[in-house]
Amino acid sequence: MNYPVWELYYTGGGLLIALIAVVHVYVAHFAVGGGLFLVLTEMKGLRENSPAVLEYTRKHSKFFLLLTMVFSAVTGVGIWFTISLISPAATSILIHTFVFGFATEWVFFTLEIVAIFIYFYTFSKIDNKSHLIIGWIYAVSALISLILINGIIAFMLTPGEWLETRNFWDGFFNPSFWSSMFFRITIALVLAGIFGFITAVFIKDTDFKEKMVRYCAKWLIFPFIFMVLFAWWYLAALPDAPKAMILGRSPELIPITKIFAAVLPILFICGLLMAIRMPGSVKKYMAFVILFIGLVYMGSFEWIREAGRRPYLIVEHMYSNSIKIEDEAKINKQGLLSTAKWVKHKEINDENILEAGREIFNLQCIACHSVGGPLNDILPVTKKFTVFGMDSQLNGQGKINDYMPRFMGTRLERLALSRYIVERLHTKTETLAKVAIKELPINIPPFNKKADEYVLLAWSKFGMHFISDSDSWWMLSPPGNDISAQLIRRGETPEIVTEEVELSYKVESGFEYPSRHVKFWNYAQDFLGKKLPLDIGVTGHGLKGKMKLVKENPAFVADRIPVVPYSDDKTFNPYPLFTIEARDKNSGKILARTRVVTPVSTEMGCKNCHGGKWRMEGVAGFSDETAGEILATHDKISKTELLKMAKKGKPVLCQSCHTDSILGTKGKAGLLNISAAIHGFHANYLTGRDGNACNACHPSSPDGHTQGLRGIHNEIGLDCTSCHGNLEDHALSLLIAEEKVGKKSAKRLMKHLVPTRVDSIHLIKPRNPWINQPDCLNCHIDFNQPDTDETFNQWTKSADQLYRSRSDDAGIMCQACHSSTHAVYPATNIYGNNRDNIQPIQYQENPYPIGSNKNCKVCHTIDMEEEMHHPNSLAMFRNVR
Amino acid sequence: MDLNALIPAPDSIPVHWGWLHFFFLLTFVLHLLFMNAMLGTGIIALVKSLKGTRQDLPIAKEISLKLPYTIAFTINMGVAPLLFIQVLYGNFIYTSSVLMGWYWLSIIGILIIAYYSAYLFDFKFDTLGSARSIFIALSVILMLLIAFLFTSNITLMLTPEKWTRYFSNAGGTILNFSEPTLIPRFLHFVCASIAIGGLFLAIIGKIKAGKENDNFEEMISSGMKWFSYATLVQIIIGCWFAVLLPKDIILLFLGGSSSATLLLLCGLTGAGTALFFGFKKRIWLSAGVVVFTIIVMVLMRDMVRAAYLNPYFALSDLKVEAQSSPMILFIVTLIIGIGLIGYMLKLATKQREVS
Fold this sequence. Notes:
The structure holds two protein chains of two kinds. Chain A contains 32 helices and 15 strands. By secondary structure, chain A is of the alpha+beta class. By secondary structure, chain B is an all-alpha fold. Chain B has helices at 3-6, 17-51, 56-99, 101-123, 125-128, 132-158, 182-211, 217-244, 247-256, 258-279, 283-309, 325-354.
C-alpha cells in the first residue's frame, strides 16, 4: 500500500519466495548441523587414530565449504532480496525492528566464513588442538546465527507482547522462540546425517564406506525422536489462531500437512535402510533420494509455518497483502485507492473502472494469488463467478474462513475488483438473455350470485415456495405444496360444511407426472426414509385425489402434493393450477368448483455465486455444475464428503444434518438448524443489500421468472425486508436463538454480522424458523390501517399463531379470504394478471379479499350491518386499482 | 504527479541516526575494499589468463587462489551496508528495487554462477589449461553485470522523478539508462577495482616475498603498474562523473559547502599522492594513501546522496523509538568477534610458520 507492487502474475502467489527460501533453508540448516558434524567426526578420527576418518572429514569439509559458502550464503541473501521485492513493507518492519539482531547475526556470519576457510585450508597443516578450536568456533557461530534468525522468523508467527510494547526483546523472545529453536536444532542434526550420506557413499573402500554411512545414519536416526517431540512442542506453543490454521482451518494446507506427517516415518526408515549393506550404486542412488526426501520434508515444514500465519505476514499486525491491520478501518471508509500511494486511478469512474480494478487486484490479491501460475492460481477459484457472485464472495471473504483477509475498500472498489476479475481475467461478458413470459389461461369456473348454494375457497399453504430439483446431488426442499379448502354454505348465517361432502383436487394437464421432470423418486428412500411410488408424495397424496378433513381448523387439506413447476410441454411454470371440487358424498353431485395455484418454483438462485447455468429453459432449475459446486464448497468449508457421496449415488438431504421443523428432521447434535445455518452463513456474503439479498436466492427477484413476492404489499412498494428485516438482521435472529440453546457454531457465523434494524445485537429477539415469524398485526394493529411499513423483532409465539394457521371469529381461515402469504389479494402474477386472484373474481368480480367493500353478500346473500370476522372488516378496501 | 505522495513513509529507527550512519559507512568502506580487490584481481587474472605467458600464468594462478576469499568477504561485507541502507533509506531503496525487480533478483543467480565459476578457475586452474579463461571470463563478466545492476539501483533510488515510469511498467524491468551519471558512475567503480586489484596483487607479492624464497618482482611490478595507470584513468573518469552530476550538487563541492569542498580537495590530493606513490612503486604508502582516499570518496558519495535526496528527505527526518540495548549487544559481539578472528588467524599462521 505504501510501496509500489511488483506486478507478478504467473510467478505471483509467493512462488519466488517459496523456491528460494526452501532451498536456502535446507542447505542453511545443514550449514549448522554440518559444522558440529565436522568437529565431532574429526574428534572421532583423532580418538580412533584413523587417518581414513580424518581424510573423510577433510573431503567432507571441502564439500561443506563449496555448498555453504556459495549456495547457502548467496541464497540467504536471495531470500532477503526476494522478500524486499515482494513485501517491502513487512521487510521494512523486520529490518527496522531487528536491525541490531541482524547486525549481530552478521558478526557470526563473518566468524563462520573465517573459521571454515581456516578449517579447510589448514586441515592437517596445524596442530590438532588448534584445528579443533577453529572447528568449534565455526560450529558455535553457525548455531548462534541460526538462533538469531530463528527469533526473527518466529516473531512473524507469534509476535507476542511486542504487539503492545514494540520492545526488541519481547519480539525476539516470543512465544514460539524456544520450541522452534530446539526443533530447528534437531533438524540441523538430522540434515547433517543426510548430507553426510552424499560424501560417504563416494568412499572407495567398501568396508570403510559402510562404517561411515552407518555413522551418518546415526546422525539421522538419534535426533529423530527429539525432532518429532520438538515439533509437537512447537505446535502446542502456538496461540489458538495459527494452531487452528495449521490443523485444517486453511484447507489448502491439509495436503501439505499430510505430506509432512508422511515424510517423517519415510525419512526415518530410509535412515535405517542406509545402515544395511547394499551394493554401492544402490547406496549412491538412495543417498540422493534421501536428499530429495529431506528437501520435501524441509519444504513442507516451512510451508506449514508460513501458511500458519494466514491471513497475516506478521500475525495480528500486518496482513499478507502488506496492509497493516490498523489501517483497515481507514481504508474501508476512505477507499483503498485514495489511501495507497502507488495508484494511478485515485477515483473510479465508468471509463477506468476495470483499470482501477486491476490496481486493487495488485494491491490486495497478488501477494498470495498467481494468475495462471503454479501457486494459488486465482483463475480456477474464481471461474464460477458472475460479477454478482464475485462481489458477494469478496463481501464475505475472511469473515468465516479467516485464512484470507477481509476485502478492504469501498463498495464501488469491491465492484471494480469483481468486474476486473470476471471481465478482464476471465474475459466473461454477461448477457442477460430475455426469455419471454407467456400469459397462461386460467378458466375461472362460473358462479351464479343468486342461485349458487356454496362458496368454495381454496389456497396454498405457502404463497412463495421453492423446491430443489438437484436430487441426484442433494435435496433441500422436496417437491410440493399443500392445498387447503373450506366449503361455505351460503345464507344469512353461512355455515362451514365439513360433513357429507367430499373435496377433491386435480392438477391441470401436463403436470400429472412430475417424475418425468425431476429425479426425486429415485432418491426418496435416501432422503425421506421411505420408498415412494412414482408421482406420489410422502403423505400418500398424488397430483389428484381426495382432500382430508382437519378438524382443528376446520378445513380440508391435501398436503405435500408433489407438484413441480415443469410441464410436459417442456416449459417452466411455477404456478400450476389445481381444480378443487366439492361433491355431495352420497349423490356425487358437484356442489362447488374453483381453481387455485400452488406456487412451486425451482428458481433457487444459488448459481449467482456457485456458478453454472439454469437447467431448464434458461430460467430455473439446478444444473449438475451448480449442484455439484455447492457440495464442493460445503466439503471444503465444513470438512464433509458430500460430493464424493453424491457421485457414489448417495445424495443427502440437507436437513439430515441440519434440523428442520417443517420437514420434521432431527439432524445432528450440535449443528445449526437449516435456516440458521444457511442464512447465517450467507448473510456474511450479502450485506448491505436490502431486498436484493433475498432475491439472490429466493424466487422473488423482479428479473426472474417467478416473481413470487406478488401480493398487495409488493404493489404498494414493500419488499421482503419490510417484514423480515435485512438479511443480517434475519440471520442474527436465527443465530441468536441457536446460540441460546448452546450451539457453539453460531458464534463463528455471527462474528461479523452487524444488525441494521436495531442498534445492537443484544436487542435482537431470538426466533426459531417457521414458528416465530413477523405477523400482519404487527403493523395492522387491531386490523387497522398501519402507520408504519416496517416491522422487525416482533415474532409470533407459536405455530398456531401464524397467519397461515389462524382463523377469524367465524372459523374461516385467514388465507381463505385473503389468500396465501406473499400473494395476498389483490396479487399480480406474471403469467396472467389474475392467476392468483381467481376466487375473488369468480365470486365477486373483483380481485380484492373475499367480502371486501361491504360485499358480505358473497356468503351471506344479503348485506350485513354488524361487524364480524375481525375488527375493521366493514371498512372499504383502501388500495383499489 | 506529486513525488512526495509517492515516496513511502519510513519506519522508525531504534537509535539516533548517527550511529546507524557510522556503521553504514564503515562497513561500506570494508565492502568496497574487498569488492575492489575481487573485481580488480579478477579482471587482471582474465587478462593474464588470455595472454597466457610464462610470467602471466603464475600471477593468474595466485589470483585464482585468492578469489574464493575476496568473493566471500565481498559478499559478507556487502550484507552489512545492505542492512544499514535499508534501515536509513529503506523507503527509497525498496522502491527502486521493486521497479527493477527482475533485474535485482537476477543478481542472486548471477552471483552464484560467478562464484562457482571462480572456484572452478581456482580448483581446476591447471587441469583446464587455456580453457580456464572461459571460467574467469564468465566470472568477471557476471560480476560486472552485477556492478551495473547495483549502479542502476543506487541511481534510481536517488531520483524519485524517474519513479513515475512504474505506471507504464509495473513488471519489474525498469533500468535507469536515462540517467546521465549511470555509465560514468559504473566505470568509476570498475576502474577503482582495477586499481585496487593491482595494488592488492602487489601486496600479495610483497608479503609472499617476505615469507617464501621465490621471485615475486613480476607480481609486484605488474600490480603497481595496473594500480598506477588505473588510478590515472580513474581521475579522468571521476571528473567525467562529476561533470554530469546535477549542477547544484557539483557546486556544493566547488565552494557551495565548506565540508564538501574540503573533502573534494582531500580526495584529489589523495588521488594525486596515490598516483605519485604508485608510479614510485611504494606499496605500503600507496596502500595507506589510497585507503584514505577511498574513505574520503565514500564520504563525498554520501554527501552526493544526501544532496540528491534533499528535496524529499533527510536522515534527521527519521523518527527514533529508542531502544539501545540491542545495539550494545551488537557492539559487544562485534568486539568479541574481531578478537576471535584475530585469534583464529593467529592459530592458523602460527602453526604454518612453525611447520
